[in-house]
Amino acid sequence: MKTLVIAEKPDMGRTIAAVIEPKAKNNRSYLEGEHYIITWAIGHLLGLAEPDAYDEKYKRWNFGDLPILPKQFKIVPNPKTKDQLKTIGELAKRCDRIVNACDAGREGQYIFALIQQQLKLMQPVKRLWISDLTAESIQKGFDNLYEEAEFENLTQAARARSEADWLIGMNASRAFTTKHRTLLSVGRVQTPVLALIYDRQKEIESFDSLTYYEIKAELEQLDRKYVGTWQGERMTDAQKAAAIADKVRGKQGRISEYEIKDTKEYPFKLYDLTLLQRDANAKYGYSAKKTLDLAQALYERHKIISYPRTNSNYVTEQNIDGMHKALHMLKSSPYQQLAENANPRLVHVNNKSVCNPSRVEDHHAILPTLRRAGTLSKEEQNVYDLVIRRFLSHFYPPAEYKQHSVLTEVEGEAFKTNIKELLSLGWKVCQPEDSRSSGRGKKKAEEEEQEELVNEPFRIEKDEPVQCLEAEVKEKATQPPKAYTEGTLLKAMESAGKQLENEELRDAMKDAGLGTPATRAATIERLKNVGYITMQGKRITVTQKGRTAIELIRHAGVELLTSPEMTGQWERRLYQISKGEAAREKFMDNVKRFTLSIIDKVRVQPKADASLFEMAEEERKGNRSKSARSKTASQTGRRSQKETAAAAGTKKSSTASSPGSMQPLAPCPREGCGGQLIEGRKGYGCTHYKQGCGFVIWKEYAGKNISVSMLSSLVNKGQTQLLSFKQPEGDFKARIVLADSLSGKLELSRVDE
């Protein structure tokens, strides 16, 4: 009999087959060779069942039916991929051994475990655990397969994560939704992340800016000009500031202190996924999900980087030789000059900033593979460029500077000057020129402004007099905290909301952050999908619905649901389960107890006024200005869409009690769905929501009520007739357009008169 190899996705399966069975016959959903049959899972083929799988009564959301605490969780096939699941089952009957070749991580382990459970696969299982999809790695991986039992703790952690999310999400979402009669999505990870954004926005809104005055002096000594900043308590009196400027202008001074020290800046650490997402957001404005998708394509399709969903910034001894070979490969690439000028001797097993096996868990840092890049899209090239430049920087020496600190005294007033004199760029030659002067982000913005970077030699004579050529006063204002971008939010998620600049502390918090590198992007997308946050350029802002959700949760007395630190501790416990250091059963008991406390506290909470959920006018404007970039991410929002469709399509309106209120109004536009749209209390949802259709059109959009006739136009013609809209900045005409037939997302198409 043959060995069945189960990969996570088709591309991975075909890549593996090309190595272990190069002459395998392609049967569309699997490849078969002399010794192996290779097939794939297409991601999650199975998931935890919805509540109504345990009892029909759960089809309707009633507070009285809570809590829902299954004794044993049921799993159900994804209806869209059930044929592939059936194929795996049929192939397994012809094989006496199985190789789990799903992604080498927690989620990949879970995907395989559910398939094994559902199909009752009894064959002995080996585990392929590799970090890149090059032929060399695949062959080496198959030559050194692991026993599946070695990963049982990781499987237990994956099950615990999934079941804990189900318990909190299903119970808390139903509790808050039925209590306040508005669909409110609550989750173990998403809610504390929303709380981070909410708290930052409240800080910004309550910030009281203080006006202060900065005094700058232009100083000269022996034809060397430099600028000093007045030292003293923050000056808030304009007249006093002007008096100091007048006092020193044109006067002679002296150097009271002068200190010079040599400093070095070492390369930034190799990328883990979160650091890559942060840099791609800062430089290119890419969302976390977009960067993950691009990195996954570079790994899976192009095979030019290693496994991207890693939590590590380091490599092991075994990777050093591969790094040297990758450097050699880059000598015949567009990075030729940087690669040829690199020093291979700088990357070795004793370089702890690169090689630190104790900091490598499941996967090493993101590295280039030995395969040369072919044709990449511009966005793929941008992400690849980040990885390559970060990789190459470790083959260069540190950047070297002379740090000059000068204190000049004029008429009893002290002026400070900080000059950073560049001696050698070192590794910074690997950075694009426009980013070579950027610091490490350890200093506050105000301090950074006081430091001047110069390329030419700088020298001051301590005993020579100084002339104050000019002095001027600049009015300034203290700045509020910055709104989160996806990049800075990822940083906060990684440290469970704690402001950590020290790299050692950052490493220590990695197993206690919010979510994992592989799930953080999905969490941010989910917050967008359920309408809790919106994007204003790069900035993330909380919607009215998001604000109300956090306030209701906190007022209910379940602040722990919004606590980043608490959720970070849960993530730490999941990590401990994966290492065999904690028991899954105890963790789940704690989650169940917490679930019960949520229900008890929401039960006695007063019902919120409906006006608290109304969209503010500025949010409407923001939504109108968003274009196709805001299209719903169907993968991350699937459960939310099911709940949304269920709430919109199955709850009868108290006013629409006639028998016709549940009559089919139009066929569902979602391709291949076959369902019908019916009228619910707040929207028009699809009758096939249980089969996974998330299509829903809300009755209120951009201040207009979507009537049944407008619904018909949207479904059949893709747009409504021309409508008039009133705005403070002026009236305008527009059509409401069905922008996404998968989700029911609407947009405005304005007509310029």
What report would you give on this structure?
InterPro entries: Topo_IA (IPR000380), Topo_IA_2 (IPR003601), Topo_IA_AS (IPR023406), Topo_IA_cen (IPR013497), Topo_IA_cen_sub1 (IPR013824), Topo_IA_cen_sub2 (IPR013825), Topo_IA_cen_sub3 (IPR013826), Topo_IA_core_domain (IPR023405). It holds the Pfam family Toprim_Crpt. This protein is α+β, with helices and mostly antiparallel strands and 753 residues long. The chain has 5 domains: 2-144, Rossmann fold; 161-205 and 483-613, Topoisomerase I, domain 2; 211-266 and 399-477, Topoisomerase I, domain 3, CATH 2.70.20; 273-394, Topoisomerase I, domain 4 (Orthogonal Bundle), CATH 1.10.290; 664-750, no CATH class. A hairpin with a 6-residue loop joins strand 25 (723-725) and strand 26. It starts with a strand and ends with a strand. 42% of the residues are buried.
Summarize the structure.
It contains 22 helices and 27 strands.
Q: What is the CATH domain class of the largest domain?
A: Mainly Alpha
Instruction: Give the percentage of residues in beta strands.
Output: 15-25%
The CATH topology of the largest domain corresponds to Topoisomerase I, domain 2
Calculate the terminal CA-CA distance, rounded to whole Å: 73 Å
Shape: globular
Mean pLDDT: 87
What's the CATH H-level homologous superfamily of the largest domain? Topoisomerase I, domain 2
What percentage of residues falls in helices of 4 or more residues?
A: 25-40%
The secondary structure category is: alpha+beta
How many helix segments? Answer: 22
CATH architecture of the largest domain: Orthogonal Bundle
Q: What is the strand arrangement across the widest sheet?
A: 2-3-4-1-7-8-9
**Low-pLDDT stretches:** 439-449, 624-661
